[in-house]
Amino acid sequence: MQNILVPIDFSDASLNALSYAREIAEKTQAEIKILFVFSLHYADRSI
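Structure (tokenized):
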């Protein structure tokens, strides 16, 4: 394993996933890639 992709939105679950990915990366010499994820909500005023 060379890369570990961790999607993160700063929720508790995603921070736990990042912590777990770090443990794996240290053991396997993998590189962690962090992908920040968010939802954009907007009102459609054309309706």
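The CA atoms of residues 1 and 30 lie 6 Å apart. Residues 3-36 form one domain.
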